[in-house]
Design brief:
Low-confidence stretches: 1-29
Distance between the termini: 28 Å
CATH topology: Ferritin
Number of strands: 0
Order of helices and strands: HHHHHHHHH
CATH architecture: Up-down Bundle
Helix content: 55-70%
Mean pLDDT: 84
Length: 258
């Protein structure tokens, strides 16, 4: 059995958006400009670098379970490219005078929870998980980088540009799904379940008070804090719709129904 990747039995939390019972006219349908909500450079690079490092860890752990030697060799190359992404981001942190490990530490627990909630049952579920989640997260952070200094934004986009793993994942998953419809049905369910978790991770990259234009130092009651969160979620709704569409498109490319 694929023991390293056993499920933890946790039920994924679902991302909540504005209730559908509300009138459409009060829902936010305008495109969101992420530039004002970009974290400061060190925090941005810290969480993105740790995401890339954790992807590398997952891919290298999956190597020994590859169905054949050819896949193992190709996955090794893809894992190396994932580490290159981390290395480029880590280098930028060092150039900013920061210790990469120190800047990544605040995000370790949050990202660990994300990965523990999305552990694949077998090799194919791991490949689908990384294909779908890293694709969305890379796209999202490329968008969120719009608020960084121009030179740093270019460096981030450059680091995230490599698609070695994505190309590998598409090919092997399409081949597997075409030859085994039962596997395809299972992976489709898995892909749909992943969406809730990746949206939670994306939402965690934002400061709800900043989204709602509330000072961090302002004291709020529990009810007021909930209202701040609802206001923030409303602003994110167009982005969530866009990312959900991108997730569905990625699934359809490999032959899965979203």
């Amino acid at each position: 059995m694929f023991e390293w990747f056993k499920r933890l039995g946790k039920v994924a939390k679902q991302f909540s958006v504005t209730p559908r019972t509300e009138e459409k006219s009060v829902r936010n349908t305008k495109a969101i400009n992420l530039k004002p909500y970009t974290p400061e450079p060190k925090a941005f690079l810290g969480q993105l670098a740790y995401l890339q490092l954790s992807n590398f860890e997952i891919l290298t752990a999956a190597l020994k379970y590859s169905p054949n030697t050819s896949y193992k060799a190709e996955l090794s190359e893809a894992a190396a490219k994932s580490f290159d992404k981390y290395r480029q981001l880590s280098k930028k942190l060092a150039e900013l005078g920061a210790d990469p490990a120190v800047e990544m530490n605040p995000f370790k627990e949050r990202i660990a929870v994300f990965h523990s909630n999305t552990i694949g049952l077998d090799w194919y579920e791991v490949v689908v998980k990384v294909y779908l989640t890293s694709g969305l997260l890379d796209d999202f952070y490329s968008r969120l980088a719009s608020g960084l200094p121009d030179e740093l934004q270019v460096e981030v986009e450059k680091a995230l540009k490599d698609k070695t793993f994505e190309k590998f994942a598409k090919r092997v998953l399409i081949e597997a799904i075409e030859s085994d419809p039962v596997l395809g049905s299972r992976l489709a369910l898995w892909g749909r379940r992943l969406m809730g978790d990746v949206l939670l991770e994306l939402r965690a990259a934002f400061d709800n008070r900043k989204l709602a234009h509330i000072a961090k130092t302002e004291k709020l009651s529990v009810e007021e804090e909930n209202q701040v969160n609802l206001a923030a979620y409303s602003k994110l709704e167009p982005l969530i719709s866009e990312l959900t569409g991108a997730h569905s498109a990625r699934m359809e490319v490999i032959g899965l129904t979203a």
